[in-house]
Structures are given as C-alpha cells and as structure tokens.
Amino acid sequence: MIYIIVFAANIIPFLRKKEQPKPEQEPDDASKECESELEVCKRRESIYRKIIERYRELIEAGESKSIPELRSLVKPQSSSVLELRDKLTKEFKPYDYERDFLAASQKAFEFVKNEIKTEHVIIEFWLSPKDILELNAADEMDKAILLCSLLIALGNKGAKVVVEMKGGLKHAFVMFNFGNRYYLFDPVHDVNLAGSKDILEAQISTERDEENKMVYEFNDTEYNEW
User: Fold this and answer.
1) Span 111-162, pLDDT tens digits
2) What domains can you pick out in the chain, each with its CATH number?
3) How far apart are CA 118 and CA 95, in angstroms?
4) Whole-number Å distance between alpha carbons of 162 and 160
C-alpha cells in the first residue's frame, strides 16, 4: 500500500503536467472573415429591429385585415403554390384526386411542418406563399394559410383555416373533409387527427367554454364567424 501511495504521489503531478492545455492557436483568415460577417449581421439586425419598432404602428395599420379580407391570403392558384403542388404529386402518375388526395395531403402536411420553420415576428405582418417558400419560415397563421392553399390546389375545395381562442390567445390550424371523415392538420404543434366532425370539434373547443372556443374559419371563397 505504501508503494502504491508513493507511486501515485510521483505520477499524478507528471500526468497533470502532460494534461496542460495547449496555447490557443491564432484564428485563420477564414475564421476572421466569418467573425467579421457575423458582427456585420448583428449590427444590421439591430438597425432593422430599431426601424421596425419605430414604425410598428404604421406597418401594422397597413397589414391589418378584417376577417372577410383574410380570404385574399389563401392563394391556391398562386404560381408558388402550384409549383409546390406539382413537386408533391410528381410520384403520382398521373395524380388522381379520389385515389391520391389523402396521401398527397399527408405530404403537404409534412412539408409545411418540417420545411417551413415556425417564427414568431414582433409585429403583425402577412407573408404571401412566395415569401414563405423563399424564407422557409412563417408564423402559425401563415403556415396554416399556406397549408390550406396547398390542400385546395390538390383538389379539396372545402379545406379551411380555423382559428380558435385558447387560453386567451389565437391558435390556427386547418380542417377539411374527405369521403366520410374529417381531418385536422396543425403543422406547428404536429397534430394530425381524423374522425367525425363532432369528435374533432370536441378536441378543439365548445361554445360553452369562453376561454377555449372556435371563433372563425375561412378559405379563398368563404368565411364563417361564431
């Protein structure tokens, strides 16, 4: 035991000496360039944020829409939506609505859920489908509107964006029916449900619950309020 203690007492300082960290190397030119670009981006972000905050009321006034006007945001005939529809249905040769819609709708749901990142902007600002697909980002409402546009472009004319109040906040998702079943797609919270209309609505809200209820729905041709 004594020999082990003596050996440990002599070897541990040696090991600690060997483990001394190496001096940091000077960053190469590429690292310096990346750091410089990052600093420029940070400064620009601060400037743009300041501009947006200063003119927030003017921007939101221009972006404000009534419920009937929300219909104009659903754009199933947009060239960007039609191009995406064609990409999602290229494996169906040819695409047949009755046969292929459910499979295509799942692909649309997965695309909006996974490829479009959810961003919460500090002001009310609507994005067109083209904007969303260029940025690969949108807030909850814009993602629901894009998904609804896609489903209509795939042939389901009854798909609607549904907005509910939940805990005092607005929450948006998409509902549609196909065959004898109703479907609820929420790409932000990864909710994909199917069943009768009554069952799905029971999952959402009731008129008796003032803190948690559907308030309106819309697509490109109609809107309903409760």
Assistant:
1) 999 999 998 877 776 889 999 999 999 999 999 999 999 999 999 999 999 9
2) 65-225 (3.10.620.30)
3) 30
4) 6
